[in-house]
């Protein structure tokens, strides 16, 4: 997108989320795994209002397996921005191969979510291997959204490498524990010049709202929606939470005080 078109598109969307030069209305990014079928995936995605949807390249059929359900039929690229991810990769080499495969399958698509898992129990990222892969991908022309720990120094390093967005975990993947360390997330947000997207650990709507109230640019989630008793209703709840949290952040909360402060001032009252 050239600079003039980008400027026009951005100004036509109030308070846009801008990733790799492209503006988006929705700040809720959703996953495509763990749903019972692609029909439920589509209905939940629509209820969430998501424009960016992520999928595991190594687990999802994009047409390479004829006769099997195809993600592109449920979530056509002309309506959604697909975000291929490297879930299941445990080395930089695996992640690089997976991103290049995604680019081939999606006709030159450059936006990817990089994750290199270091521990199978917690699914924490191996940040050393992630850094290694990120450097190569950026040089290779990819727009890299990178999953990492909530370490402010690492977040800054990924920004310096040239990543399009940094995606710190709120808690272990699929745990539903919510944001476990507000301080580190806040440090990342206050020092970042690229979008900060909370990724992993969100369990319910209040977790999503808190992330946005801290100033995060967006939230990516999958399990919290897909494993809810009613995934479509939860997707709608998350949409509302993201919007409310963002509005609260922009509005500016009142300071916290130990004691009461009267809603109606008493100065000038008639005796």
Could you describe the 3D structure shown?
The structure is a single chain. With 271 residues, the protein is an alpha/beta fold. The protein has ten helices and ten strands. The strands form three sheets. Strands 5-4-3-10-9 form a five-stranded parallel sheet. The chain has a three-stranded parallel sheet with strand order 6-7-8. Strand 1 and strand 2 form a beta hairpin. Helix 2 runs parallel beside helix 10, helix 4 runs parallel beside helix 5 and helix 8 packs parallel to helix 10.
Produce a short descriptive summary.
The protein has helices spanning 3-11, 38-48, 71-74, 92-105, 127-139, 152-161, 182-191, 205-213, 223-226, 231-251; strands at 17-19, 22-24, 28-31, 52-56, 81-85, 111-114, 143-148, 165-168, 197-199, 218-221. With 271 residues, it is an alpha/beta fold.
The helix content is: 25-40%
State the order of secondary-structure elements, H for helix, E for strand.
HEEEHEHEHEHEHEHEHEHH
Shape: globular
The structure class reads: alpha/beta
What's the number of helices?
10
Strand order of the largest sheet: 5-4-3-10-9
Q: How big is the Rg?
A: 20 Å
N-to-C terminal Cα separation, in Å?
66 Å
Strand % is: 15-25%
Main pleated sheet: 5 strands, parallel
Low-confidence stretches: 1-8
Whole-number mean pLDDT: 91
According to DSSP, the number of beta strands is 10
